[in-house]
Each structure stands twice: as structure tokens, then as C-alpha cells.
Specification:
By secondary structure, the chain is mainly beta. The protein is built from 10 helices and 36 strands. It is globular.
Length: about 800
């Protein structure tokens, strides 16, 4: 769990604030329990991004996840389209690993994950990730990104690292920020200039001092229209070549882009003194409604009813996301120990549905909108942490000792959709709500887990030059037994300018309850690029067991890192860190198994009608990730203001080092079946760029702030499996994106900013004819520069 020392929770003290003056002196609270470590004095690599960094990121729609991806090279935030629930909940990843291998903290406390499994995304498929966009952008004081394994420090999930979001804690009067923007872009596949994705983002906050502390609260609301970069439809060859279907050729029948969304997020952060105790609390409440894209259904087909949609239809998937997190705690000094006791409760509820749809098997009596199911995840976490300094024998040196415990209770449940969303009607047509087939009674799940952990850590300056940090943790799971993890990190200072650091750690990550209990039906590509219904089965399902599925086991990892810090002057710092992460029994979704024989077998099982393929979770692979990060920072006075230059680059490559053998039951259906197919191998190894470089220049004086940021992303490869050995692929070239922003202080308390994200209107390579789905999906949605083109915006800020 998120067991930070009491001095490092909720807010940074005045000593830290006074120290945040240069690149080499920024104080951090993540990565070590020793207090008051600076970025360059840390034994492990930590990036720090201020509120100004985040607010000037040019993030479309004010999304925290997108803002972080724009400024942090090691963090990715891939988009999705036509991807089921993944259109509605985006997942972030660190150092190229899975989203659920990243631990997210808010004010040092563990953040709960989303209830929904991203089953249709490419990057992070099969994971239930923390929804970064439920944390309001305006609530953030700074973000600390620990690029190192930290299971022993903070508990499971910290394989790739830790992101700690620190909330605003400086009481201010009322502040209001209003941003409006839109995409202004030239779309090559349709030879048109478009304006879409209109976005309005409102941030308000207020705060005051009270009871020896502070209270801050705010509202973050945004409305965003959808974007669409679909091409002209050539009509697939497998669609019945009737006059009605062929008449749809040349139209933009599909949608490819960002969903329409409406978000409201509330937040608060507080601290006060009561009966000698420091009492603190913070929380967020978020609600989001989204509308995603699905594939077009042609007029003549077994998935349409001409009496309802004579010209065909494109279902619109809907998501209703509710997210709540509250934390309350007490801090006090007891017998020389700084003690912190806290309780955090998190809930995420996701309701999935579809409109502009039908269940063709019900004929003309079919509804046109459906509630396809609900997923809910809750996490209650109690922490007790204690820290103190003790003197070394016969020495003036101090050792920081930290002890703590955590109790965590998790609950996951899913509920079926409307009966009409999955019912098999009297007509011999496709069964279920088109675009979002509903969960059935067999898909419902209710799972619980309790986790107990104890930890201890010791940090010490062994000599004037040598700092060492060690941690041990014991965790016991109600469903997976117990495990121990450890970490050793060290830093050696050669002189005032040069130091070296290294760390060694291991981590354990139990399968998420969502991964154990998740079950749904989606529409995917089948043989010859036809669309088939795919059922994701929990490993406890009888059909999955008959195909060789086994109970999931925890992932285990070992993390090595080594780095160097060079501070040639007070204004300049350079850090370099290399790392290797070995993960055994990595959890993935299996390949989709389809074909005539397995379809017949599935169809013979209860609820198997109309299901064309299946998949399930499995501990299928062992992987090795190697990479390196370099960060160069320089600031200096210039033209009466201050110039800040930063170059940050990351490189990470993941390779699969071992596969679990394919069960004999699966090979009996088709000898070519493999638990992990070419698509998942592609996802793990090459679907995301291996390199990312961000160069940022900021100049600021009392009136103006000017920013220019150039981002470069390496090449990436996409591979598809359409059966029968037809596995088209394409490598997309490297891309660069330029972001600019200018802000002027109009008067006291009033400022105006204008900016552009992707100023040059750059797009990824066009997908080839084997991948672009007959002209309809001309761009690869996963491109890190996006497929929306240029975004321009203006912001007005008021402080009263």
C-alpha cells in the first residue's frame, strides 16, 4: 500500500517549498522514506512536474492522463476507437509495461483502479487500470513519477513504477479558468478541412485557512464533441453485394476518433489541528458520460432489420462512469515516532450500453437502446505508518526508520444487462445488442479479496558520500497466499557535481479481481476480416477449462537499475538511468480462437449461440524489458526573464523470453492455435514506440510566459490475425509533434493564454489497404501523436 512517512503526506512543508528553486534542488516525497531528498540526491530516478507544467501541457479536454503523456517521456496514454469499453476509459502505462503494473498514489495513498477491463484496447489489453481522468487537472499541485520498481516500498502493482499525484495545499481566494478549443485540421483521406472536437473546460477552486490548517475545494467540468477521421467506405467483399449495400459505397459510414464526453469532477483537500492532532482529508468525485464508435451495419445483413434501419446503422456505445475516492487520517508524534493513521475508500462503477442499435433476432419489436451491463469495483484501505530518526552508535549520523502496516479489502461485481441486450429472439439473425452485446446471467460475478501487509525500511547516510535505502515487505492475500518483497537502493557522491546510483528490487502482483471475474461478449474480426462475436471467459468457466484454461497465478518481477547524476552548475543537471525488468508469469488475454470446429463446439454449450470465437486470461509469457532514460535541465536569466530548457528522452524495449505451452485441448481443434498469438506478441513487443524524446523551452517574466515543446516518437508496428494464415502488418514511421503556448498577464489576477497542440497538423502514416478496413479506418488509432490533427485553444484565468 501507499505507506509514506508522516512528513511526506498531504502537503509539502515550508522547508521543501523554499528549496524548490532549481532543477537540482526540487524536493520529492516519492521513492524513499528518508525525508527531504532532492531529485538529484535521490537513490532512484524521480521526475517532478509542477502545476504549471501540467496546465501548459496543451492537454486536449483538460485530461490529466493526456497532460502527463505530453510532458513525461516514460508515460504513455494511448487512445482507442471502435474498441468497446476501451473507448470510454483510457489507461496509462509507464516504461512500456501494462497499465496494471503501475501503482498510482494521491497524496501518498493508494488509488483504486477502474471496474472495467480494457478488453478491446491494443496497448494494455486485459488490464483494469487507474482512470487518470477522474483526477481533476486543477486539483494537482505537482506529480512525482518514480521510474523504478517499488513493491517493497508501496506494495503490489509497483512493477513499472509509481505515480504520486500531490494535491493543491496553498489556500487561495476564488480562482476560475475557462478554456475553449477545437481541432482545425486537413484530413488527407477525404481531402477536406475539418473543424471538430469542440471542447469547453471550466476549472474553479477556492480555499481558506481554518483551524490551524487549510481547506481547498474545486470543480472541474468539461464538454467535448466527438472527432471523426474515417475515410470513404469501399464496402467489404464479405458483405452481401446487394443494391442496398452497394449504395452505401463512397459514404463516411464509420467513425474513427475520440468519443463525445461530458465530465464533472469535484475535489477537496484539507488539514487542521484538533486536540493536538493533525487531522487531514481529501477526495474526488467524478461523473463522466461518453459516446463511443462502433462498426457500421449494412442494410442487408443478418445484423439489421430493414424495417427499423432501411439504410443501415452505426451503433453508438455509451459509458456512464462514476468514480469516488475519500481519505481521512490523523498524524501525531508518539514516543518520538511520527505516526500516521489513515483510511481510504475508493469506488468505480461503469455502466455500459448502446443506442442507435437493435437486437436483430427480435425483429422489428427490438428496442433501439440497451443497458448492456454494469461493473463495480471498491477498495477500502487502512494504513498505519510510523517514522523516526535514530542516531548511529558513536556517531552524529542519523538513520531514518519507518515501519507500517496496511489492510486492504477489495470487491468486484458485475451485473447483467437488459434481457433484450442478450436475448435470442424468434428470428434467425444475429443475437444481442449490436455494438455492445449485453452481459448475461452467466457473465455475472461477485468476488472479494483481503490483503494484509507489513513493511519496514531503513535509510541512512553511511558516510558523507554514501546513502543507502533498504526496505522489506510481507504481504498476505486471502486468495493467493503470502509473499515477501525487498528493495535495496544506494547513491554514492563522488563530489559535489557527480554521483552514481543503483537499485535492486522484486515485486509481486496478484491478478486483479477484474481479471479473475471478467466476462463479456464483443464484436471482433474473424476469418477473412468478417465480424464475429467474441466471448471473453473467466478461467473458472467450464468452457474455458475444457479448452485448457488454468487458475491465474501472481506475476513476479525483478527490477535492476543503475544511473548517474552530473550537476555541472547550479543551473544545470543531467541524469542518466538504465534499467531492466524481468517479469515471470505475465498475465495476458489469450489469443482469440476462432474457426468452424471451435465455433461448433462453443455453439453446443449453454449460451454459445452466435458466438464465433473465445478467449480467456492466462499466465502465458515471461518478458524482459530493457531501457534507459536521460533528462537534461538548464535554467538561466535571459532578456529580463528566466529561460528553462529541458530535454528528456526514454528508450524501452520488451521481449518475450518464454511462452506457456498451448493446451492439448486447444491444439485438438487446430494445431496452429497458440495461447499467445501474433497480435498479442505484437502488443507486448512492438505496437508502441520504443523511443520518445521531449524537448521543452519555456521563457517567463513578470508579464509573459512563452512555451515551445517538440516531441518525437519512434516507429511502431501493427499486426492483425484474420485467420487462415492471413496476418497483415505495417510499420508506421517515426513522428514529431510541435506544441506552443503564450500567456500574458493582462492585469492583476487576470491572464490570457493561447496555444496549439500539434501546431504543424502532423498525422501518422496512412494504413495500407490490408489494414484500413476497406478505406473506412485510414489511420492507426494508437499513434502517440493521435489521429485528430491540430488542436487550437484559448484560456482565460481569473484570481479574485
Amino acid at each position: 500500500g501507499a505507506l509514506l512517512p508522516s512528513s511526506a503526506i498531504a502537503r509539502t512543508n515550508s522547508v521543501q517549498e523554499q528549496s524548490e528553486t532549481t532543477a537540482s534542488e526540487t524536493i520529492i516525497v516519492t521513492g524513499s522514506r528518508a525525508p527531504l531528498r532532492s531529485v538529484t540526491a535521490s537513490p532512484v530516478p524521480v521526475d517532478v512536474f509542477s502545476a504549471d507544467n501540467i496546465q501548459s501541457s496543451g492537454a486536449v479536454a483538460g485530461e490529466l492522463g493526456q497532460a502527463l503523456a505530453s510532458i513525461a517521456p516514460s508515460f504513455g496514454f494511448p487512445r482507442q476507437s471502435n474498441s468497446g469499453s476501451s473507448d470510454h476509459v483510457r489507461a496509462g502505462q509507464l516504461r512500456g509495461l501494462n497499465p496494471d503494473q503501475l501503482l498510482v498514489l494521491v497524496n501518498g495513498k493508494r488509488r483504486h483502479s477502474s471496474a472495467i477491463v480494457n478488453s478491446e484496447t491494443k496497448i494494455g489489453r486485459g488490464t483494469a487500470a487507474v482512470d487518470f481522468n477522474t483526477i481533476p487537472l486543477g486539483a494537482v499541485k505537482r506529480i512525482e513519477v518514480l521510474r523504478d520498481g517499488a513493491g517493497a516500498l508501496y506494495g503490489s502493482d509497483a512493477i513499472a513504477g509509481v505515480i504520486n499525484v500531490i494535491l493543491q495545499d496553498a489556500p487561495t481566494s476564488l480562482s476560475v479558468s475557462l478554456t475553449h478549443g477545437l481541432h482545425v485540421t486537413d484530413v488527407e483521406p477525404i481531402s477536406k478541412s475539418l473543424q471538430d472536437g469542440q471542447t469547453t473546460h471550466l476549472e474553479t477552486s477556492f480555499g481558506f485557512e481554518a483551524f490551524g490548517g487549510f481547506f481547498l475545494a474545486g470543480v472541474d467540468a468539461r464538454v467535448r464533441e466527438a472527432t471523426n477521421r474515417a475515410g470513404f467506405d469501399l464496402v467489404p467483399f464479405f458483405v452481401p453485394q446487394t443494391a442496398a449495400n452497394l449504395a452505401t459505397a463512397g459514404r463516411r459510414n464509420y467513425a474513427e476518433g475520440d468519443p463525445k464526453s461530458q465530465d464533472v469532477n469535484l475535489w477537496y483537500n484539507s488539514e487542521s489541528k484538533f486536540l493536538g492532532l493533525d487531522v487531514y482529508g481529501f477526495g474526488t468525485l467524478g461523473s463522466r458520460q461518453t459516446e463511443g464508435a462502433t462498426f457500421f451495419r449494412y442494410p442487408d445483413g443478418n445484423d439489421n432489420v430493414r424495417a427499423i434501419y432501411p439504410n443501415g446503422f452505426r451503433p453508438i456505445s455509451t459509458g456512464d462512469n462514476l468514480d469516488i475516492s475519500t481519505t481521512g487520517g490523523l498524524r501525531h508524534k508518539v514516543w518520538g515516532w511520527n505516526v500516521d493513521a489513515s483510511l481510504t475508500n475508493g469506488l468505480n462503477r461503469f455502466e455500459y450500453g448502446v443506442k442507435n442499435s437493435l437486437n436483430a433476432s427480435l425483429g422489428s419489436a427490438s428496442p433501439r437502446s440497451f443497458n448492456s451491463g454494469r461493473f463495480e469495483f471498491t477498495q477500502l484501505t487502512g494504513n498505519l505508518d510510523a517514522r523516526r530518526q535514530v542516531s548511529l552508535a558513536d556517531s552524529n549520523r542519523l538513520i531514518d526508520v519507518a515501519l507500517g502496516g496496511e489492510i486492504r479489502s477489495e470487491r468486484f461485481k458485475s451485473r447483467r444487462g437488459d434481457e433484450s441486450s442478450f436475448a435470442a429472439g424468434p428470428f434467425d439473425s444475429a443475437i444481442g445488442a449490436q455494438g455492445a452485446p449485453g452481459l448475461t446471467q452467466a457473465d455475472e460475478a461477485k468476488l472479494t479479496r483481503d490483503v494484509f501487509s507489513l513493511y519496514g525500511s531503513v535509510s541512512a547516510e553511511l558516510t558523507t558520500q554514501w546513502f543507502t535505502d533498504a526496505a522489506l515487505r510481507y504481504e498476505e492475500y486471502s486468495d493467493f497466499g503470502s509473499a515477501a518483497t525487498g528493495k535495496l537502493a544506494s547513491r554514492f557522491e563522488v563530489n559535489d557535481a557527480i554521483s552514481f546510483r543503483a537499485s535492486l528490487s522484486n515485486s509481486i502482483r496478484a491478478p486483479g479481481l477484474q481479471q479473475i471475474g471478467f466476462s463479456d461478449t464483443t464484436i471482433n474480426f474473424g476469418q477473412n476480416r468478417t465480424l464475429v462475436a467474441t466471448r471473453t471467459l473467466p478461467v473458472t468457466n467450464a468452457v474455458a477449462r475444457a479448452l485448457g484454461a488454468k487458475p491465474l497465478e501472481p506475476e513476479t518481477s525483478i527490477n535492476y537499475s543503475i544511473g548517474a547524476v552530473w550537476i555541472p552548475s547550479r543551473q544545470t543537471s543531467i541524469t542518466f538511468d538504465a534499467f531492466e525488468i524481468e517479469i515471470a508469469d505475465r498475465i495476458t488475454l489469450s489469443d482469440r480462437f476462432f474457426g468452424d470446429q471451435i465455433a461448433a463446439f462453443i455453439g453446443s454449450q449453454p449460451g454459445g449461440a452466435s458466438i464465433g470465437s473465445v478467449r480467456f486470461f492466462t499466465n502465458a509469457v515471461d518478458t524482459q524489458t530493457r531501457g534507459a532514460d536521460i533528462v537534461v535541465r538548464h535554467n538561466r536569466p535571459l532578456f529580463g526573464g528566466n529561460l528553462n530548457l529541458e530535454l528528456a528522452a526514454t528508450w524501452a524495449e520488451t521481449q518475450i523470453k518464454g511462452f506457456t505451452p498451448t493446451p492439448a485441448a486447444l491444439r485438438a481443434f487446430d494445431s496452429s492455435f497458440a495461447l499467445v498469438g501474433v497480435e498479442e506478441v505484437n502488443t507486448i513487443e512492438s505496437a508502441a514506440p520504443k523511443s520518445k524524446v521531449i524537448a521543452t523551452t519555456t521563457w517567463k517574466d513578470e508579464k509573459w510566459r512563452l512555451l515551445a515543446r517538440l516531441s518525437h516518437f519512434g516507429e511502431a508496428t501493427r499486426v492483425f490475425n484474420f485467420g487462415g494464415g492471413f496476418e497483415p502488418s505495417q510499420t508506421y514511421g517515426a513522428e514529431a509533434q510541435l506544441d506552443v503556448e503564450a500567456e500574458v498577464q493582462v492585469s492583476r489576477g487576470v491572464s490570457v493564454a493561447f496555444g496549439a497542440s500539434n501546431l504543424t497538423d502532423a498525422y501518422p502514416d496512412l494504413s495500407n489497404d490490408l489494414i484500413n478496413f476497406f478505406g473506412n479506418l485510414p489511420y492507426d488509432i494508437l499513434s502517440p501523436i493521435g489521429i485528430n490533427g491540430r488542436y487550437v485553444y484559448g484560456t482565460v484565468k481569473f484570481k479574485f
